[in-house]
Design goal:
This protein is of the alpha+beta class. It contains 7 helices and 5 strands; from the N terminus they run E-H-H-E-E-H-H-E-H-E-H-H. A 5-stranded mixed sheet has the order 1-2-3-4-5. The longest helix is centred in the last third of the chain and has 16 residues. It is globular. The mean pLDDT is 86.
């Protein structure tokens, strides 16, 4: 595919992916390409193991928004759920305390990850998935939360990109809910 060629993607919502070990392996390859570098760029663990990834793909509590190329091949995935107890690394109680009304009607969503095959970075796959999720959030007058390491925010400018997509979609109020700072005490006697 040439750089000038623009391929349309379509977005579908699915409850489960990975019907076969081969499909899980292919999707994990995309996931690894997108998130593997964070192993040495982020202090917290941002990369699921193959087994954890397969479990999440099969977990019907977590929606998967997939970007499909014209042949129906998955070229992007976003994970998204309002069942916050499905995400082991977050505190559902934290979000319930901050968004009590939305929590009472199951309208607090966690966006786990979004990835796109590098060959489709210029084909609006990321934007199309985010815009589809935003439509759902607007319809439900919901809150969407996610976490982002400083590398993705500061170096890759993902937060600014998301703000731009949200602005085009009619805007949303964004705020930082919490931060975690990793600290080192070096006792090498320098």
């Amino acid at each position: 595919m040439s750089g000038a060629e623009r391929v349309a993607v379509r977005v579908e919502r699915r409850s489960a992916l990975g019907a076969s070990p081969e499909e899980v392996a292919r999707l994990y390859g995309l996931y690894e390409a997108a998130f593997g570098p964070l192993r040495v760029l982020a202090a917290a663990r941002h990369v699921l193991t193959h087994e954890e990834f397969a479990e999440e793909m099969a977990d019907e509590r977590v929606d998967k928004y997939v970007a499909l190329d014209p042949d129906g091949v998955i070229v992007g995935i976003s994970t998204f759920t309002n069942q916050l107890d499905a995400i082991v690394w977050i505190s559902p109680e934290y979000y319930a305390a901050r968004f009590p009304e939305e929590s009472a009607r199951s309208a607090v969503y966690y966006l786990g990850f979004t990835l796109v095959d590098p060959r489709f970075h210029r084909h609006r796959a990321f934007e199309s998935m985010v815009e589809t999720i935003v439509e759902r959030l607007r319809a439900e007058q919901a809150v969407c939360v996610w976490d982002m390491c400083s590398f993705n925010r500061d170096q890759l400018q993902l937060e600014a990109g998301i703000v731009a997509i949200l602005d085009r979609s009619g805007g949303a109020t964004m705020s930082t809910l919490d931060t975690q700072t990793y600290v080192a005490a070096d006792f090498q006697g320098r």
